[in-house]
Amino acid sequence: MSKAKIFLLLCFSFIVGIGLSSLIKIPPSFLGGILILGIFLISVFWKNKKIVLLGFCVIVAAVAFWRQDFLSKPENLSPEIPISSYNDLGEASIIGIIDNEPEAGPAAVKYEVRASKIKLAGNAETNLPAQAGVGGRIIVTARKYPRYQYGDEIEIVGKLKTPPKFDDFDYRAFLAKDDIFSVIAYPKYINQISFGNGKIYYRYILSFKNKFEEVIAQILPEPQASFLSALLIGSRQAIPPDLMEAFNTAGVTHIIAISGYNITIIAFVLAAFLGFLRLSRPMIFWLTLLTILFFTALTGAQASVVRAAIMGSLVLLASKEGRIYQVTNALVFAAAAMLWFNPKLLRWDAGFQLSFLAALGLIYFQPILARIFMKQEMEEKLTPFAKRAFEKIKEIFLTTISAQAAVLPVLIYNFDRLSLISPLANVLILPAIPLTMFFGFISAALGFVFMPLAKIAASVVWLFLSYEIWVVEGLAKFPYASLEIFNFPFIFAVLYYALLIWLGFWLKKRAGLFSGPV
Q1: H or E segment at 389?
Q2: Which end of the chain is more exposed for a tag (fewer CB within 10 A), N or C?
């Protein structure tokens, strides 16, 4: 077996170990037994390479179990007393710094606060000091006004609680994936102590992002303005609820969310558009990669966006190099590395799941389907320009089908919805997205220099945005455009992926792609 395959198996063993450890808890003694089993297989059967490899896989899986357990305990995340130790002890005064961009909703704002000090207000029964330095982050849900910004140091007086678990949503686990174990809902008051803290570069990025959004609001009417803001910088708060529901029904929400699924598909569509312009393959690769990096920076290079950018870039690399096996190794290694730093992503982060699966779908299924549909008699009758346009539209359609086939169970499980109209919606909308983003960015950039000229340029992007909204709203009205599926059984997902893998091998054989490594 080649070194590349051994490396792939070890990375995969770590991912499997992380997955199993998120589902079942085992005592340390049993974990030690698994570790000893791996060492036993290596030392006793050291001449049998397959058993030795199995032993190493067992050891790696045991390490994954340990890593999951270690990072699931708040006390291992910070040298200070975890702020979550004070959960459910009544009212407290907490001092901390707003550690991320505030998330504004229709009636409230959520602040992510990195706590530094706490003082209990009452005589709670606890062995903890009533006043202490602490570590860790909390989510504070407060009234919309007054507003506070990233880097503000604030004092919060309220009840620190353990995040709740709802019947249809485990909010506690959702926050735990980001190492957040405490919440405060509508505190008595918030007092600003200082401002201008936090990372300087992030403050400048958020300032530019806010100004960028203000310019868009000045050059375009609604809902086109909020749609463009979501498309360019992932800011969806201002999108009207009825339009947001239409996006969900049509299955195109991914284009307005800065996620791995979004970045991966947009990167492929942008590459197809640049290919239509007859740019060279290296030029297409570098322009698309620079676009990914630009939007990653524009969103503040948050961890979730960086992960998405890595996944999207690897898929782009696979398209450029045409070496599926090597890029698969890189993709699986990237996933394993991300899980080493945050094991909770695998089970609780839908963005990570969608990123990884969409990338695999595009790396494996898109080339297979492209080979199967490579030659069509109708294409021979088209003019060169029409043939090229048809080829790119077909590529976008196959990209959409490949990605959605790979993520379908995850979408249903997390969002309780199956969009039947999604393939058609994506084919009608995605070809226009690169031009929408290009003219949208140019128009907004002009707004920083000369607003009248920006408004003239915005008339072009308004046409694209209006067309896309018209398609989304029109398709969302179709009967049975989407189906609601609640409590999607896990076993169905397992059977689906087993069938998908079998179908992949069958299609690969039919397409004649079995030459070379799989």
Answers
A1: helix 384-415
A2: N
Q: What is the pTM of this model?
A: 0.75
Decide: residue 208, CB within 10 A, 0-12 exposed, 13-18 middle, 19+ buried.
middle
Nearest to 264 by CA among 151, 359, 357, 334: 359
Strands 91-98 and 81-82: unpaired
**CA contacts within 13 A on the Cβ side of 88:** 4
Q: What is the pLDDT of residue 215?
A: 94
Q: Which domains does the chain have, with CATH numbers?
A: 3-71 (no CATH), 81-198 (2.40.50.140), 208-251+433-478 (no CATH), 253-420+483-513 (no CATH)
- Give the DSSP letter of residue 432: G
Other CB atoms within a 10 A radius of the CB of residue 18 amount to 25
Backbone angles phi and psi of 197, in degrees to 5:
-85, -175
Q: For 150, list phi and psi in degrees, rounded to 5.
A: -55, 135
The rounded distance, in Å, linking the Cα atoms of 190 and 148 is 9
For residue range 255-305, list pLDDT tens digits in order. 776 655 566 666 777 777 777 777 787 888 888 888 878 777 766 666 667
User: Cα(365)–Cα(406) distance, rounded to whole angstroms?
Assistant: 9
Q: Please compute, for residue 403, the number of CA atoms within 13 A of its CA located in the half-sphere on the CB side.
A: 31
122-127 own/partner pairs: CB under 8 Å, 24+ apart = 122/90, 122/91, 124/89, 124/90, 126/86, 126/89
Give the pLDDT band (50/70/90) at residue 379: low
d(CA 151, CA 131): 23
Percent composition of the chain: helix, strand, coil (DSSP 3-state, to 5): 65, 10, 25
DSSP 30: H
Q: In angstroms, rounded to a whole number, what is the distance separating the alpha carbons of residues 124 and 145? A: 31
CA distance 446 to 141: 36
CA atoms within 13 A on the CB side of 336: 21
Signed CA dihedral, 487, 493, 495, 499: sign only: positive
> Which three-class secondary structure string do you get for 191-214?
EEEECCCCCHHHHHHHHHHHHHHH
